[in-house]
From TrEMBL:
It is a multi-pass membrane protein. The chain crosses the membrane at residues 34-57, 69-87. Coiled coil: none annotated. Its main location: membrane. Keywords: Cell membrane, Lipoprotein, Membrane, Palmitate, Signal, Transmembrane, Transmembrane helix. Belongs to the YtcA family. The lineage of its organism: Bacteria, Pseudomonadati, Pseudomonadota, Alphaproteobacteria, Acetobacterales. One of its GO terms (cellular component) is membrane. This is Uncharacterized protein YtcA. It is found in: Membrane.
Amino acid sequence: MRYQLLQRAIPVLLLPLAGCKVVGAPSFPIAGAYFPSWMLCGIVGIAVAVGLRVLFLATDIDALLSLRLFTYVSLGTITALLFWLLAFGP
């Protein structure tokens, strides 16, 4: 009786672990070293934010912004997340 109860309880207790994978995080080799994919997405986001800052300064849009830091951080984050979704998403 006790063995049957334990046999039924184990799958229920292990159910939260069903989403875990044994495979490692997505990574790619650069010059022989493996880098995590989130680092590439972060670098792309930073590069786009800096590029947009230069573009906004050249076109005088930067003077119209009231929250510059928030704007550039948001643009970089949106770009990094969009790159993650397109490159490594479902």
